[in-house]
Amino acid sequence: MRAAMVGGAGYYAGKKIQEGREADADRDARLDEVETQQAAAPAAGGMSNDMIDQLGKLGQLHEQGVLTDDEFAAQKQKLLEST
After folding, report:
1. Which terminus of the chain, N or C, has fewer Cβ atoms within 10 Å?
2. What angle do CA 8, 13, 16 make, to 5 degrees?
3. Residue 66: what pLDDT?
4. pTM, rounded to two decimals
5. CB 62 within 8 A of CB 83
6. CA-CA distance, 14 to 62, in Å (whole number)?
7. What are the DSSP E strand ranges found in 1-83?
8. Is 42 helix (H, G, I), strand (E, B) or coil?
9. What's the sign of the alpha-carbon dihedral 64, 69, 75, 79?
10. In sequence order, what are the residues at sequence separation of 6 or more whose Cβ sits closer than 8 angstroms to the Cβ of residue 45?
11. What residue spans define the domains of the chain?
12. What's the Cα-to-Cα distance from 46 to each of 12, 38, 52, 73, rounded to whole Å?
C-alpha cells in the first residue's frame, strides 16, 4: 500500500512539473510571436523609421537656423501628410 502511495505521489508531481513546462513553452511562444509582430509594425503610431529620421533632420535644420519657423512647419506638415 505504501508503495502505491509513493508511486502515486511521484506520478502526480511529475505530471504537475510537465504541465508547468508546457505552460512555460506556450508562454514563450506567445511572447516570441508578439515580439515578432512588434518588430514588423511601423514605429511611433504608423510612422516609418525613414519618416522619423526625416523629421529629426528637419528639426536639426530648424535648430541651426537653416529653416524658418514657417518653413519648418510647412515641411513637417508635408511629411506627416504623406503617410
Report:
1. N
2. 125
3. 85
4. 0.45
5. no
6. 66
7. none
8. coil
9. positive
10. none
11. 1-41, 46-83
12. 50, 12, 10, 20
For residue 21, give the C-alpha cell: 513546462
Residue 58 and residue 80 in contact, taking contact as beta carbons nearer than 8 Å: no
Dig out the grid coordinates for 54 from the structure.
Answer: 526625416
Nearest Cα to 59, choosing from 44, 69, 46?
Answer: 69
Task: Tell me which amino acid residue 63 is.
Answer: E
pLDDT at 19 exceeding the cut of 60: yes
Q: How far apart are CA 5 and CA 12, in angstroms?
A: 10
* Model confidence pLDDT, tens digit, residues 27-52: 888 888 887 876 765 555 667 788 88
In the block, which residue shows the cell 505530471? Answer: 15
Matching residue, cell 506638415: 77
Query: Residue written as cell 530648424?
Result: 62
Separation between Cα atoms, residue 25 and residue 27, nearest integer Å: 5
Cell of 33: 510571436
DSSP-based three-state secondary structure for 47: strand
